[in-house]
Design a protein that fits this description.
The structure holds two protein chains of two kinds. By secondary structure, chain A is α+β, with helices and mostly antiparallel strands. Helices cover 22% and strands 34% of the residues of chain A. Chain A has a six-stranded mixed beta sheet with strand order 6-7-8-3-9-10, with helices on both faces. Chain B is built from 14 helices and two strands. A two-stranded antiparallel sheet of chain B has the order 1-2. Classes of the chains: A alpha+beta, B mainly alpha.
Chain lengths: 372, 291
């Protein structure tokens, strides 16, 4: 069952025959539409993330793949076979639940062995595979422990071992790290990636944490109100968001509204701005220019380089974050622009003071033109 | 302030028990009260000495030597045990069914389970006489449906006792079972299904083991009072069935032998202490497990 292919990076995975295919999936709960006409392919060996705010339908989508919900419309294909009518206990997918859902009346061993015991696997083999799984999640010697004697991180590992022991075609992870503290979460994210690379199993993770999705996933499906907002590798989602909503949801961004002018120029409340080369379109069309804070520079003098965009403003607020500071600069049209500056100078004093008159500049190619 | 609960316990539980214990060690007498010795504090130290000297365990020896009492105890345990098993078989599906209904509907059905308590227990048992007697509702129905040709003698039999007991104690079984089943984590059932366990098997592997505290609570809540039950066997049972509650009543009211009646009560209490202690330990274990 375990494919030797290993983790595939980026879009390359999408070109292979899909392992999981959602085809025109709609799910309604009474009046509420949780998922609306969504189609999505997930390749074998991919680490795939469903990302979105709470209530966007990402968990519903995962639960439909596990078999706990039935789609109102559409098909779900696994290896080309429609599995909508297949009950959850027959599907070759396993899920790691958000609250882990460990059986409190069973030991660690009993929990991990549960899946295999349903398959009439012989005891010696079960014992062997449980030991193997405990080693895999770095918890050897914990087999006889009771579940209530484990820490949150240990429970998470047991839940992972329990879901992996049946060597599922797809491992579903429902907010797997939501209950862990920040430091442990960061460690676990890397462990999970390493584990996925080693096993080659397809992982689908549901998360509302954009950092988590960006770190672990090969591709991210950003969901909003039951619809697919954007589907791309993390870097593309961050650098080339396809809408204001995605740009705003993923990371920090400043968005400037304006009208297209000739020669890749934008008429905005901040004056005439240069757009990335080749940004064509009908002059006069309303578009939005999105710029990430780390792509911006602050100078006391107007930059002399010819083709950079530069706007004048006053420093309004400085948020110190240790490695960097976020400057909020109030511009001529009273809007605020967020600029991230690395704190490279020793001592940690801010490079610019509050109320100081500064120039915010960026290269035209650093911006992204959004049409919706 | 901290002592108040203990004062309550002493006043309402320990003191009455000590009085009963004392009477059980006395001898019957044609007097007021109908037993000797009576503690006479005016007689001082000597009175106290002669009081304790007059106490004896003769009544307990009688309980052990006369088959009448032993059989009554055994009969009581038998009725309680069989009834508890029937109650479990009937109550579990009811509790399970209620716990799986939509949230808003559950309180309504729990209310229906409790509803009979609004009518006097005695009246409800009398109502069963009406149903079970020779020309009662049950026989009328069976005759009308041509299931039987001649009326069945339901009343004054063990069957009638079991019907009455199961009917009367059902809420005590359903409520604790419902309480444990209702708070069971649904995702555990999903996890079992996810790991390849079909529904019927999930019940045996997950639901039932996790509801065992409720099973124990319900079973004891029924078993203990049924053992001492008096009204139901007296009204619905036959002459050949003699439970310990009836024996006690007879000693007390018919024979006016308060000491023997008290000894029966104390012995019954000791007998029931066994399952109670067992339950106590079980609870303690699950409490420790919960931490």
């Amino acid at each position: 069952m375990v494919d030797g292919g290993g983790a595939t990076q980026g879009q390359g995975a999408a070109h292979k025959a899909p392992l999981v295919r959602f085809e025109g999936i709609t799910k309604r709960f009474g009046q509420l539409t949780a998922v609306e006409h969504l189609s999505l392919d997930i390749a074998q060996g991919e680490f795939f993330a469903l990302l979105g705010p709470s209530g966007c339908g990402k968990t519903t989508l995962l639960r439909m793949l596990a078999g706990f919900e039935t789609p109102s419309e559409g098909r779900i294909l696994l290896d080309g076979e429609d599995i909508v009518a297949m009950p959850p206990h027959e599907r070759p997918v396993n899920m790691m639940f958000q609250n882990y859902a460990l059986f409190p009346h069973l030991s660690v061993e009993g929990n991990i062995a549960f899946g295999l015991r349903q398959e009439k696997v012989a005891w010696p083999e079960i014992a062997e595979r449980v030991t193997e799984m405990l080693a895999l999640v770095r918890m050897p010697g914990f087999s006889k422990r009771r579940v209530d004697q484990l820490s949150g991180g240990q429970r998470q590992r047991v839940a992972l071992a329990r879901a992996l022991i049946k060597r599922p075609r797809v491992l579903l992870l429902d907010e797997p790290m939501a209950a862990l503290d920040k430091k442990l979460r960061a460690e676990t994210q890397f462990e999970l990636m390493e584990l996925q690379g080693r096993l080659g199993t397809t992982f689908i993770i549901v998360t509302h944490d954009q950092d988590e999705a960006m770190i672990v996933a090969d591709r991210i499906a950003v969901m909003d109100h039951g619809r697919l907002a954007q589907l791309a590798p993390p870097a593309e989602i961050y650098e080339r968001p396809n809408s204001r909503w995605v740009a705003d949801f993923i990371g920090e961004v400043t968005i400037v509204k304006g009208y297209l002018a000739k020669d890749s120029m934008l008429d905005s409340g901040l004056g005439r701005l240069r757009l990335p080369a080749g940004s064509g379109g009908n002059p006069g069309t309303t578009v939005w220019l999105a710029v990430r804070p780390e792509k911006l520079r602050i100078n006391a003098e107007r930059p002399t380089t010819g083709d950079v965009n530069a706007v004048l403003g006053t420093v309004f607020e400085i948020g110190y974050r240790g490695d960097m500071s976020i400057y909020k600069v109030r511009l001529a049209d009273r809007s605020l622009m967020k600029v991230a500056l690395a704190n490279t100078n020793a001592g940690g004093q801010p490079s610019f003071g509050i109320d100081q008159l500064v120039w915010v500049s960026w290269l035209p190619d650093a911006g992204v033109v959004l049409t919706k | 302030m901290l002592l108040l609960p203990y004062l309550w316990l002493t006043a309402f539980f320990l003191a009455p028990f000590l009085i009963v214990l004392k009477i059980s060690l006395s001898q019957p007498a044609l007097a007021q009260p109908p037993y000797v010795p009576v503690l006479d504090l005016a007689a001082g130290w000597a009175g106290l000495q002669s009081f304790f000297a007059a106490l004896s365990a003769d009544n307990y020896a009688l309980l052990g030597s006369d088959w009448l009492y032993l059989l009554a105890y055994l009969k009581s345990l038998q009725v309680a045990a069989i009834s508890t098993v029937i109650l479990l078989a009937v109550g579990y599906p009811i509790a399970f069914g209620i716990a799986r209904l939509p949230r808003w509907l559950q309180p309504v059905l729990v209310m229906l389970v409790i509803l009979p308590f609004w009518t006097s227990f005695l009246i409800r048992v009398y109502a069963w006489i009406n149903i079970l007697q020779r020309d009662g509702l049950l026989n009328q129905l069976l005759l009308r449906l041509h299931i039987v040709d001649t009326p069945v003698a339901w009343l004054s039999s063990d069957t009638a006792i079991y019907i009455g007991v199961v009917y009367s104690y059902l809420p005590f079984m359903v409520l604790p079972l419902y309480a444990t089943l209702e708070k069971m984590d649904e995702t555990l059932l999903e996890a079992a299904a996810d790991l390849g366990c079909p529904r019927w098997k999930t019940f045996w592997l997950v639901t039932l083991p996790l509801s065992l505290p409720g099973v124990a609570a319900g079973a004891l809540l029924c078993f203990i009072p049924i053992t001492g039950e008096f009204v139901i066997p007296d009204l619905l049972g036959g002459a050949e069935t003699f439970m310990i509650g009836q024996t006690l009543w007879m000693e007390f009211f018919a024979n006016k032998d308060w000491p023997v009646a008290s000894a029966i009560a104390v012995a019954l209490l000791c007998l029931l202490l066994v399952p109670m202690l067992f339950y106590e330990r079980l609870q303690q274990r699950s409490f420790e497990g919960g931490r």
